[in-house]
Amino acid sequence: MSVYLHCLSHSPLVGLVDPTPEVLAEIDATFSAARERIARFDPELVFLFAPDHYNGFFYDVMPSFCIGMAAEALGDFGSAAGALDVPLELAQDCASAVLQAGVDAAVSYRMQVDHGFAQPLELLLGGLDQCPVIPVFINAVAKPLPSFQRARLLGEAIGQYTKSLNKRVLFIGSGGLSHQPPVPELATANAQIADRLMGSGRSLAAPEREARQQRVILAARRFVEDQASLHPLNPEWDQRFLTLLAEDRFVELDYLDNEQLSETAGKSTHEVKTWVAAFAALSMFGPYQTTDAYYREIPEWIAGFGSISAQPYSAI
Ligand SMILES: O=C(O)CCc1cccc(O)c1O
Ligand SMILES: [Fe+2]
Question: pTM for the full model?
């Protein structure tokens, strides 16, 4: 049994609003090296911690955490669409173990996921169904949000469960770092948007979906011209976060106030709780070492964009 971790930002704007060829080449090199390391590790099972953007999870019932017993990617922004290869019995056992450990994650037998899940599977594994994957949703946009501490405990419970498997397991965290794309909020939504956020967005008609995507694309183009048009990226906060992970000090985030983080680094920064959960899972295997840390502000993608791998010292 061995474990490996990779965490990375995502953005649906990849390929739609791109940075310069030099920056793209740097990122391509980062991802192809990560892909190679993962291929060498040859995972038999993936735990994918990722958020959603009102594509699969809505306010009719909004869980903090949800473990997929089966899942389908809907293919927003041209991301991959189709079924994930979820091993049902393992996912069920995992959910039981997590609840037994005191973390009341929801389950879904019909989980809908968006680019937050699809992009890392495409980028790191070459597709949605290339490796068995247990998808774990962490709510990072729909208030009230879970705390960093609960994300850590979720990760620890999954790490403990992983120990009972005799498998090579890859933990992936998807999202962040600092960013605030234009995602609607219930508190300020008009009646039509509120209705979408409460569930009608599940069956968004094609023209409305297209309009929604165009709004994000326009916002990205404007953000490149004028960095005051959205909440600014915060490379200082992002570097501090990466340092906390590298030094195995992410427990220090436990009581970080959600509102305060939104003000510091943008309302979508809460996606980094997926990284905390993944690192917490890894940490159940003892002290770890991070490798291949990458960071750059990429306004074209509305993202403080990061990527990092890690493995237990005992595996080095
Ligand atoms: O789906 C949406 O509306 C928001 C999309 C989005 C944009 C930029 C960075 C992200 O991480 C992200 O998820
Ligand atoms: Fe996101």
Answer: 0.98
